[in-house]
Description:
The protein is α/β, with parallel strands linked by helices. Helix content is 43%, strand content 14%.
Amino acid sequence: MSSENHLSQTAAARPPLNLAALVKEHEGRNYELQSEHINPANVRTLKTIGFDRCYTRAEGAYLWDVKGEKYLDLLSGYGVFGLGRNHPEVRRILKEFLDADYPSLVKMEAPLLSGLLAAELKKRMPNQLDMVFFTNSGAEGVETAIKYAKCATGKSALIHCKKSFHGLSSGALSVNGDDSFRSGFAPFLPDCREIAFNDLEALEKELKKGDVAGFIVEPIQGKGVNLPAPGYLLAAQQLCRKHGALFIDDEVQSGMGRTGKFLAIEHEGAVDPDIVILAKTLSAGFVPVGAVLCKKWIHEKVFSSMQRSVVHSSTFSQGSFAMAAGLAALDVLDRENLIANAAKMGDLIGQGVTAMIPRFEFLKAVRWRGLMVGIEFGTPKSISLRLAWTTCHTLDKSLFPQAAVIPLMDKHHIITQVAGHGVDVVKLLPPLVITEADVKTFLTAFEDVMVGMHKFPGPAWDVLAGIGKMALTQRAR
Length: 477
């Protein structure tokens, strides 16, 4: 019997997939399977900081693990779950779509749902952006913007900021301001230049060279939650316009209402971006989808003839299921008034942490716009705490914020993250559906963690010392 016939007969004898039974059968094997098949280094990292939980249920701002323990998720999948997890209204819409047997990705057609979603997105822009291209991710949106900028201007150079993050695909990595992500992947795209965030003089110096296709910038930097100086983004856009470069607004993490406005750049006033990149919450937490919106003249430079009508494309672009998810996301944002909720809850968190600063030496500052929050630590005054600070930074420059992140998770079941490599910042990206009760839960827990961190020596420092020694050992190998 041939192997093909044997496989065919085996498959025919096998019962159809029962996903619920399969998940139940292997429940709790997450890290074993990940280590064997996917990413053992990440498994070691998660186990080291105590994040090796196996989640089995999700609803709104909460997750439950195999033991039935409940967790408040203030990371929301790096911002993907802006609507919370498993939003019932989105589920209803997507189920209706699946039941309709509606076509998708015919390719030799003009899809209806993508046109409807594009029209809805355009309504929400702060300026005139005429055309939309749909992607599968934020990184793919950045790749699109890079191509558009070069084609539209006929120039080759790109400017980005230090500490910027625009994705990890090859082109996006070329405009990434964090060397920890870039190491080992050179060479990058030529003519990609890095300047300091908030430095208009440096931007103008590069633009004056006359070869810049575009300046790509996050209106709030995700790595560190760094806010723009007042007037910076508007002045940067005006400089780009003056020197014939495109102003590219990367709203992958900060957009879709997270900061209390649909786009974070709207906090600046009458800014006029040439390109806006969206993703994450646009997916409604169900289907990967992103969008690149641009001015019509840019689109016409790229797609300049019938022969070039598909010069930039993607296999899964405009997939109907993804478009339905995007339409559902916008509908829920509007009807549940989640953008206003983001502004209100963000202020409650920011003001609550600000009130703690005089009491705790390690607390330096808190930065926030809506539900994009960075809590920064700084050098304490007392000798014993300064010794703890110095010891942590000697062991690993990214270690100290784990003194807050680990007990928030271990003791209080609250999920947060360190805001980037080599920064003393804890980052919060809560779902936009969080309530005042959720905020109170976090503030109470964070205060308790701060009390513990200011006891030296103590349990928090024992954990950090162990992690730091492990890091030194791995670097020495």
